[in-house]
Specification:
Elements: E1 10-15, E2 26-31, H1 39-45, E3 49-51, E4 60-68, E5 74-82, E6 90-97, H2 103-122, E7 131-136, H3 139-146, E8 158-170, E9 174-188, E10 192-211, E11 215-235, E12 240-251, E13 256-269, E14 279-294, E15 304-320, E16 323-334, E17 341-352, E18 357-368, H4 381-386, E19 395-405
Parallel strand pairs: 2-3, 2-4
Antiparallel strand pairs: 1-7, 4-5, 5-6, 8-9, 9-10, 10-11, 11-12, 12-13, 13-14, 14-15, 15-16, 16-17, 17-18, 18-19
Length: 430
């Protein structure tokens, strides 16, 4: 499909129910496991296909993925896989959304590109006779298509973001106050990635317990953290890149009065980086030097120390028709004391085994022998219950899994928002 189609500002495909068809509607399976799709809106705007819940009976399987782009927005990729009567026919479309795009903007763009991508398939069926198709480019798009010169960016691709937020959560015996601030500056192109980030946060939690007879007691927990992060990554080839991370931080929770780290690294992607929407398999090795100044003397009787270490990170991602897989593993140790090390493994799998049977699994675990920052002395009951400071542990793990089996009708065309609060939801995040 020619990229010129992307300049179309208005594409309308409407289905006339009064027309009779001698062949069944196209069966469409939308795969949005990597991102969110407003299915009610899509069904309303694209009503000339049958939406199916079983990908094995679909004539067209559309895999939709989303990646963050250099400007702080997102790039969406739509892969159209022809199945059954369209077996062997494929197509790929991509579009970018701005960082300040609303859900309304994004869903309209998504529907537009779905319509464009479906046209070559629809044109091979009798359904084309029942559709009204309008292709119209506005004046701005037409004029810009004549200008072949590269667009000049007055900001030279630099993107800045300032964010502040806070929360208050309280009842009669508890009060939690949290506020954070964050500033980010980044410049991301296909050749070079540069990032700066400054953040700070303060948390105060108050617990009250007791009664009038014994008296009211209060426990106040305060945690503060500040961080400066800088990263530079340079593209070498389609598979290799080099770069470094630099970081200065302070955290009362982990006993760091001041921690400074510098870590150069090299990374290899077994697949080309350009295929990140579908698959990614990276191996990254880095050497780091860290200078730690502690608030309290550590369990190893240190108030300050400089350490030289190294680490390996492996990441594997697949976004395919059969599902998606994300696996990561990492290890780190210190040259001057190899007995201080940690190993971590995490992964998520969401796989469609058959038409109606699917399986999902998430696992994270780590084995750590490098909590060199822990303050000396035993943790008090108050420390344990309120998590005022990091506690000693050799391992952490977390997992969840699920199996789903769906049977019955494979069609999914209807929209009925009754008794669902109008279809709107509010999401709050920390």
């Amino acid at each position: 499909m020619r990229k010129e189609l992307l300049i179309l500002s208005f594409i309308l495909l409407s289905y006339h129910s009064y027309c009779q068809q001698s062949e069944p509607k196209i069966k469409l399976f939308l795969d949005c496991s990597n991102t969110f799709c407003d299915m009610d809106f899509i069904r309303t705007e694209i009503n000339f296909v049958d939406y199916v819940l079983d990908y094995k009976v679909a004539d067209i399987h559309i895999l939709i993925t989303q990646q963050v782009n250099g400007g702080g927005g997102s790039q969406y990729q739509l892969i159209f896989f022809g199945e059954n009567r369209f077996k062997g026919k494929t197509d790929t479309l991509r579009f970018n959304v701005k960082p300040n795009s609303t859900d309304f903007d994004i869903r309209n763009l998504l529907v537009k590109y779905l319509q464009v991508g479906l046209l070559p398939f629809i044109s091979q069926t009798e359904s084309i006779e029942t559709l009204n198709i309008q292709l119209k480019a506005n004046a701005t798009a037409a004029d810009s298509s004549k200008n072949k010169t590269s667009t000049k960016d007055p900001w030279n691709y630099w993107v800045f973001n300032i964010n502040t937020n806070g929360s208050l959560n309280a009842d009669q015996v508890y009060k939690g106050v949290r506020y954070n601030g964050n500033f980010t500056a980044s410049r991301i192109t296909d050749k070079l990635k540069v990032r700066f980030n400054i953040m700070g946060g303060r948390n105060k939690t108050t617990y009250e317990f007791g009664d009038d007879a014994t008296g009211i007691n209060k426990i106040i927990v305060k945690n503060n953290n500040y961080n400066f992060f800088h990263q530079v990554v340079k593209s070498i080839t389609g598979h290799w890149s080099i770069g470094y991370n630099a970081e200065v931080s302070r955290s009362t929770f982990t006993n760091y009065k001041l921690r400074a780290l510098f870590k150069p690294a090299i990374e290899f992607d077994i697949f080309p980086y350009t295929e990140v929407n579908n698959k990614l398999f990276t191996l990254r090795y880095g050497v780091d030097i860290t200078n730690n100044n502690y608030i309290d003397t550590t369990i190893y009787l240190k108030k300050q120390e400089t350490l030289l270490g190294h680490g390996l990170d492996v990441a594997l991602t697949f976004n395919q028709k059969w599902g998606n897989v994300n696996i990561s593993a990492n290890s780190h140790s210190y040259f001057n004391n190899p007995k201080y090390y940690n190993i971590g493994l995490g992964g998520g799998v969401n796989v469609r085994i058959t038409g109606g049977l699917s399986f999902n699994l998430f696992v994270f675990g780590s084995y750590q022998r490098d909590q060199i920052y822990l303050p000396k002395g035993r943790a008090t009951v108050q420390d344990v219950l309120t998590r005022q400071r990091q506690l000693a542990t050799n391992y952490t793990y977390y997992t969840f899994f699920g199996v789903s089996y769906r049977f019955g009708s494979k069609l999914n065309n209807f929209i009925n928002p009754r008794f669902e609060g109008g279809g709107g939801n509010f999401f709050f995040s920390n």
